[in-house]
Specification:
Layout: E1 2-7, E2 10-13, E3 18-26, E4 32-39, E5 46-51, E6 58-60, E7 68-73, E8 78-83, E9 92-100, E10 115-116, E11 120-125
Parallel strand pairs: 2-11
Antiparallel strand pairs: 1-3, 3-8, 4-5, 4-9, 5-6, 7-8, 9-10, 9-11
Length: about 130
């Protein structure tokens, strides 16, 4: 069992930056690949970024590539999402998720993630 708690969301102007954190409790955090997803009002949840269990492999949605950076600190049981050059269309609730996966590949499919946090709101004003 893994519990995930996101933090770091807020209101920011377009072009600004935010850093989201996701703290995990429970066993074997380092055995999970981690992902960030987001859901805007009236839209389906969509993949943003993922990182493999050892942190050696990352993958990004095309909409955020070059602006967002995912990282993890297994000693602190925490995964991060650094978001730069934010745009109004980045406004959404951001969720972190854990996938029991010790492979180098990561998945973009939300149904393959085992645990989810409660989400943190990110609002980007124009």
């Amino acid at each position: 069992q893994v519990q995930l708690v996101e933090s770091g969301g807020g209101l920011v102007q377009a072009g600004g930056s935010l850093r989201l954190s996701c703290a995990a409790s429970g066993r074997s955090f380092s055995s999970y690949a981690m992902g960030w997803f987001r859901q805007a009002p009236g839209k389906e949840r969509e993949f943003a970024a993922a990182i493999s269990w050892k942190g050696g492999n990352t993958y990004y949605a095309s909409s955020v590539k070059g602006r967002f950076t995912i990282s993890r600190d297994n000693a602190k049981n925490t995964v991060y999402l650094q978001m730069n050059s934010l745009k109004p269309e980045d406004t959404a609730v951001y969720y972190c998720a854990a996938d029991w996966n010790q492979k180098s590949q990561v998945t973009v499919r939300p149904d393959e993630y085992d645990y989810w946090g409660q989400g943190t709101q990110v609002t980007v004003s124009s």
